[in-house]
């Protein structure tokens, strides 16, 4: 953004008399020396007073809802420090990659670390002017990057995009596919605003190539990954509205790409970036202005959306980030981003199914949705927060999965963290909510038979609903026969739903299935062990029909997981753990 545009943006922070509103001066001008010299004019990135004081190195700091570049970098540095500690733990065998046990993940070392050029692990929080130096460096490289990146020939580009778009939903793609493909194929240079951003195109080519290949990590994939990461780093401070949304999309895609390849440090890094972008752009706060027109909440980095299609896109962007944060925070047993705390501020409607014109199916958007997640978790039945479409049900399930995982950990903790009565009430509420979602989900059989685009989302939502049931009941399964049976039934539904030839033909599934399927296997294997103990007590020599049936279910799940290992090292790793655990109970 130009200096002129920064000044133009700052005028909205001033009163009608031309003075800056109380409390909105930069931190430099709030000091006593500056207050006696001249009032702060609120300009960004550097106010007029600081410009005259030759503080040209650093952007001004403002204590208001606007997040400056330095603040965003400080959040990033905090996340990086947490990941460095995780890496150090992994070197001593103490990392937290997701596994197949019921209550806690396996503690296997993380298989890979940040290996791409420009890894952020060496950032020093104490370095002065870090924001301005990084910004300046990126701006200098931005012009040269587009000349360095080479797009594939048109025919190959088309094939890569088709390969990517066929499975894009499994990587968290929320943009309009047809519009994306059309703009990507325009005969315009890389970086033209009529086309997707260079980083989004590079990431699409990377994933498209990965999905079109069989086997391991190739030299070409390595080169494409380097291009995608370099392009993403270069556009870190690109403020073009479309490119900000595109960068959010890129961070989600790269996060799922790395999760799929069991590269958890890099996956968490990009997921955290997506969270920071969504919060900085206030994608969780859309206000009603008049009629169907909505604008962003005050103090955001994005201008008001131009039409309803753009509103729908921004809503989809936020919920895609929120679901990513919920699912992987639960799976890794640690928050993806410590600074992503927006749950109490969300006032956008749940994501909607859209028609070909990107309008919400079923009517106009309803923005009477203040505090929508907290009200939903409290059991509020207000129709303005209902959200019954498949995208909304998936997002709600991600919320319940994260809450159930957290609650389960508190129940199984030696210290019984939290008030027991309050935890019991939360358990009852979550149980009611998850069963409500199950009752609203379409049956999988007609979905798979019809092969309509939402089938992938329906498959993962069904599986996550039952995974949530397991999380809610697992802490009590050893003492409560009813809780044990609910766990077993949920695990059986997960396996039976996956045991479908049409599902196997998909070739690609959401990376979270590498967490859900092993969870189902673990429940069934626990039941096999229980049946074995009973058999030993009663000195029965042969397995019962029930035990044989449970063994068959585990073997079916192993076969299903095996069908998806060729292109997912995470699934392959999880399969090996299941096979080892199953072999141990057969000895």
From TrEMBL:
Main location per the UniProt record: nucleus
Gene Ontology molecular function: DNA-binding transcription factor activity, RNA polymerase II-specific; zinc ion binding
Region: Disordered, residue numbers: 87-156
Protein localization: Nucleus
InterPro entries: TF_fung, Zn2-C6_fun-type_DNA-bd_sf, Zn2Cys6_DnaBD
Entry's Gene Ontology cellular component terms: nucleus
The organism's place on the tree of life at top rank: Eukaryota
Name of protein: Transcription factor domain-containing protein
Organism: Pleurotus ostreatus
């Amino acid at each position: 953004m130009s200096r002129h545009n920064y000044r133009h943006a700052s005028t909205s922070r001033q009163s009608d008399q031309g003075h800056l509103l109380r409390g909105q001066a930069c931190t430099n001008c709030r000091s006593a020396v500056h207050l006696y010299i001249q009032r702060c004019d609120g300009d960004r990135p550097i106010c007029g007073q600081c410009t005259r004081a030759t503080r040209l190195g650093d952007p001004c700091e403002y204590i208001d809802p606007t997040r400056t570049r330095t603040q965003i970098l400080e959040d990033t540095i905090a996340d990086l420090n947490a990941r460095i500690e995780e890496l150090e733990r992994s070197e001593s065998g103490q990392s937290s990659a997701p596994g197949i046990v019921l209550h806690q993940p396996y503690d296997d070392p993380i298989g890979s670390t940040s290996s791409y050029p420009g890894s952020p692990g060496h950032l020093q929080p104490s370095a002065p002017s870090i924001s301005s130096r990084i910004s300046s460096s990126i701006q200098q490289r931005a012009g040269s990057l587009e000349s360095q990146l080479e797009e594939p020939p048109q025919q190959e580009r088309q094939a890569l995009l088709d390969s990517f778009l066929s499975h894009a939903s499994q990587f968290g793609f929320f943009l309009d596919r047809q519009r994306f493909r059309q703009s990507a194929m325009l005969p315009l240079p890389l970086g033209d605003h009529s086309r997707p951003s260079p980083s989004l195109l590079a990431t699409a080519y990377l994933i498209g190539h990965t999905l079109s290949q069989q086997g391991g990590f190739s030299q070409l994939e390595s080169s494409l990954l380097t291009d995608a990461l370099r392009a993403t780093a270069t556009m870190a401070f690109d403020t073009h509205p479309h490119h900000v949304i595109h960068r959010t999309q890129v961070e989600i895609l790269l996060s799922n790409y790395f999760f799929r390849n069991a590269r958890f440090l890099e996956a968490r890094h990009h997921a955290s970036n997506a969270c920071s972008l969504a919060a900085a752009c206030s994608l969780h706060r859309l206000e009603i202005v008049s009629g169907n027109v909505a604008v962003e909440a005050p103090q955001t980095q994005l201008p008001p959306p131009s039409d309803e299609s753009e509103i729908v896109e921004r809503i989809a962007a936020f919920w895609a980030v929120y679901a990513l944060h919920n699912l992987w925070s639960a799976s890794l047993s640690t928050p993806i981003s410590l600074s992503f705390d927006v749950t109490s501020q969300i006032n956008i409607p749940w994501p909607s199914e859209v028609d070909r014109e990107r309008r919400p199916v079923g009517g106009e958007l309803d923005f009477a949705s203040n505090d929508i997640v907290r009200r939903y978790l409290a059991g509020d039945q207000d129709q303005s927060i209902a959200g019954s479409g498949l995208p909304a049900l998936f997002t709600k399930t991600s919320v319940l999965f994260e809450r159930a995982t957290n609650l389960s950990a508190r129940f199984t903790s030696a210290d019984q963290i939290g008030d027991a009565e309050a935890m019991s009430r939360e358990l009852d509420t979550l149980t009611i909510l998850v069963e409500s979602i199950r009752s609203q989900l379409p049956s999988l059989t007609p979905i798979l038979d019809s092969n309509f685009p939402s089938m992938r989302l329906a498959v993962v939502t069904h599986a996550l609903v039952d995974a949530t049931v397991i999380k809610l009941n697992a802490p009590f399964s050893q003492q409560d026969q009813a809780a044990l049976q609910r766990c077993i039934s949920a695990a059986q539904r997960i396996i039976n739903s996956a045991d479908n030839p049409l599902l196997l033909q998909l070739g690609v599934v959401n990376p979270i299935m590498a967490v859900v399927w092993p969870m189902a296997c673990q429940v069934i294997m626990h039941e096999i062990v229980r049946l074995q103990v009973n058999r030993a007590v009663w000195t029965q020599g042969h397995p019962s029909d029930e035990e044989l049936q449970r063994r068959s279910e585990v073997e079916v799940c192993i076969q299903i997981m095996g069908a998806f290992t060729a292109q997912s090292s995470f699934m392959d790793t999880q399969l090996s753990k299941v096979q080892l655990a199953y072999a141990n109970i057969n000895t």
